[in-house]
Amino acid sequence: MADFSGRDLAWLERRRSELFALIAQVGDFRRGALNVVWRRCGKPNCACAQPGHRGHGPQYNLTRRAGGETVNVHLKPGPELEKAEREVAEHQRFAALVEEVTQVSEAICASRPPAAGTAPPLDGGERGARGAAEGGRRRRGRQAGRAGCRDARPAGGRAGRAGAGDARCAHLSRRPPAGRGASRRGRIRRPARQVREHLKATTALVTGGADGIARPR
């Protein structure tokens, strides 16, 4: 564990920035460890069956833990093995940088003083009282807005009111749009009356007119 005793806050912040820059430069990496093994094939006539023989090899494996199990990946000597070696080394570098930046950040948290004017957390009673006060202010604001909208209604009798409309604010009105609350029965009767009047006028024209004078057919 690194020892940051005697380091001031400015130095710690600079070091943290440097570590973040190094982490951003990390390339491809993979977890695991490279192992070299020799194995015996089990054939009694093979050379690996002789006493003191290490077995066939070397064989290269990449071993890691995944889901509580050990996973082995066989690697061929050459470009495949060299690529895996670079990726495993890069992961070790990444893990070391993360560990150091964590220690530096913990030292920064211990060295930084509390911000001036920071209010302590509110308990349940204070939160309830503050919420009630804010709710009262919001209600008073809505009431004042309604009063201002009522004062803004135009004068001038029925014509002025019909031309200007209702001066109440739209954002304060909670009434549904016209027609939504209207009676469905009333909406059906109006076209029915118009149909009956049209039929009555047509019948009067055919049978002799509204003034009783017979018309030639």
Radius of gyration, in Å, reads 45 Å
Q: What is the straight-line distance between the termini?
A: 117 Å
What share of the residues lie within helices?
A: 40-55%
Number of strands: 3
Which whole number gives the mean pLDDT? 75
Q: N-to-C SSE series?
A: HEEEHHHH
Global geometry: elongated
Number of helices: 5
Largest beta-sheet characterization: 3 strands, antiparallel
- Taken as a percent bin, the fraction of beta residues is 5-15%
Reading side by side through the largest sheet, how are the strands ordered? 1-2-3
Oligomer: single chain
Structural class: mainly alpha
Low-confidence stretches: 159-165
Write the layout of secondary structure elements.
Blueprint: H1 9-24, E1 33-39, E2 56-66, E3 69-75, H2 79-111, H3 124-151, H4 157-164, H5 184-207
Antiparallel strand pairs: 1-2, 2-3
Helix pairs in contact: 1-2
Short overview:
This protein has five helices and three strands; from the N terminus they run αβββαααα.
Structure notes:
The chain has 217 residues and is mainly alpha-helical. It has a domain at 9-111. Helix content is 50%, strand content 12%. It is built from 5 helices and 3 strands, in the order H-E-E-E-H-H-H-H. It has helices at 9-24, 79-111, 124-151, 157-164, 184-207; strands at residues 33-39, 56-66, 69-75. A 3-stranded antiparallel sheet has the order 1-2-3, covered by helices on one side. The radius of gyration is 45 Å and the shape is elongated. The termini are far apart.
